[in-house]
Amino acid sequence: MAQSSTPAQPPWEKPRRAIGRRSLVAGAAWVAPAVSLASPAPALAASGVYQLTVVTPGLSANGADLYLCDRKANNPNNNNPNTSPTGQQVLFLTVKVTDNGVAAPNVTVSFSGDDTKDGEGNYMIGFWDVGVLTGMGESSTKRTASASSDADGLVTVKVSTATFGQVDCGSMPKQGSVTMSAGASQVVLSYTIYDCSPLVANCP
Prior knowledge:
Layout: H1 21-28, E1 51-54, E2 66-69, E3 91-99, E4 102-103, E5 108-113, E6 125-128, E7 145-148, E8 154-161, E9 174-182, E10 185-194, H2 199-202
Parallel strand pairs: 2-10
Antiparallel strand pairs: 1-3, 3-4, 3-8, 5-7, 5-9, 6-8, 9-10
């Protein structure tokens, strides 16, 4: 019977060694653990959807957001005596602009009244830049204004009204609306303009 023999290992091959369980465990100890790196939270971005709030006191009354006298001089917060030609005062309207509850500077706000007119064809309400000192009386041209908010988010414009005449007897007061726009945001205010002169007593 021939005797079996194990073939000789070629000289270029290194001897193989069995890997035990302990070697596997030892090797696992060298695996670097996964590290979760927290990234900083991004700053709150401007939404572009602004909140517009009237901050001029004393303008809301009798169910209207703006309750205004037709001759301007008796309006609350009337503070510009330089109006031509009558020297009557006009109203300053101040609005605060916020974004996510934070004051929003450098935001352009536009103010526009509706198409309501008095009996003479003058628009009942108009808006002007605060730098305008003359010519803010009643007008048959719609007067609109735009202004940018300051560092505190405040923007101010002047408001003028038409003046009732005899032709308006029986149709006073006048109601309408004002639209304030900033970016994609719009706020509509209601107004009532009433006769604060003795005209009513002279109506037939």
